[in-house]
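Service request form, structural biology core

Requester: graduate student, group of Dr. S.
Request type: structure prediction, single chain
Budget code: on file
Notes: please return the result as structure tokens.

Sequence provided:
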Amino acid sequence: MFSSSFLRLILLLCLVSSSFSSTTSSSNSTAADQTLRPQEELQKLTLIRQELDKINKPAVKTIQSSDGDKIDCVSTHQQPAFDHPLLQGQKPLDPPEIPKGYSEDDGSYENSQLWSLSGESCPEGTIPIRRTTEQDMLRASSVQRFGRKIRRVKRDSTNNGHEHAVGYVTGRQYYGAKASINVWSPRVTSQYEFGLSQIWVIAGSFTHDLNTIEAGWQISPELYGDTYPRFFTYWTSDAYRTTGCYNLLCSGFVQTNRRIAIGAAISPRSSYKGGQFDISLLIWKDPKHGHWWLQFGSGALVGYWPAFLFTHLKQHGSMVQFGGEIVNNRPGGSHTTTQMGSGHFAGEGFGKASYFRNLQIVDWDNTLIPASNLKILADHPNCYDIRGGTNRVWGNYFYYGGPGKNPRCPLKNQENKSRKRLLIIILTCSAHEFWD
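Core staff response, request fulfilled:
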């Protein structure tokens, strides 16, 4: 028989041994994790640098911008577009015929970009490209999705965090669109939210083959690392699944202009009760070659989206949309305070609210005509609203925007009404993904 004291000693030794074994095991596990994580980080960094080598082309000259950007002057034939198999060995096309009825005398202010205020410019035979950095890519949800919009799978856009105040036309064949948009610096409260104002040219269905061409200004801390309003473009031919990207972050858009950098900050910006500054954008389909061209400001051709990038837009668009969009991540469980436009409601009018003016579309005859039968919609009008009008100077126009979270944002019954209206539009047009 073992004494009780001896048994207590054995039990104590077992407990100590068990504790030591557990501690050693935990220590070994932690050491293994610490060994594994640096390896994963190294693999990610290697992948990022491989992608940067594809995106950032050799520069003939580099210009330092006051906002921190580096603008690389890249030989035109070495730009990312010509990585595309169908463009390799080609050179940019000559400018197309401008749409009939186009006029530069619409009262637009001439906006420039911060990088060009130094007086430096890119030499002939090159184009300016905003350099992409490791930090840019590290902010993205994944290296594979960098520079791309998130694929939306729900038909009801009120449930995915994207909110809009837009004017749109549908029911005809559209070959382009034009508008002047004033530029602001709205507050964006989260790295993973954004605010934008843009033109969409749309064709196809939401299921798998949506085609869009998009251009405007946006504030996106995730994409750019700051809150400057920036000139941007986007395209997709398969509902944002695998094709398309922002700006020149993939092969597709062919840039022809050496004075405008897509993705660069716009200056000056509008101020509340102060100066109002807008950009004029024109997108149209070249009747001769079928490519979609983009013009920024008065007569400055930026470049074109080749027709072969698309399926439905090879022919024409079935809808044109103008307006604002934000992402609402509901911080703390309540509506975001990210602003749309100027951050003020449409009813405040000129000098206070954001606007789109001189809304036009391009018809089958390559002629600019007023965007008649324009419908307007705000899917959360207590957060961001819209008011349209027509006059002799501004033609068709609307004010839009808002502050986001406020005592009236959102009201449940108003949301339900908006969801019903959105669902009707989505089912009618069979093209939900343009809300992205």
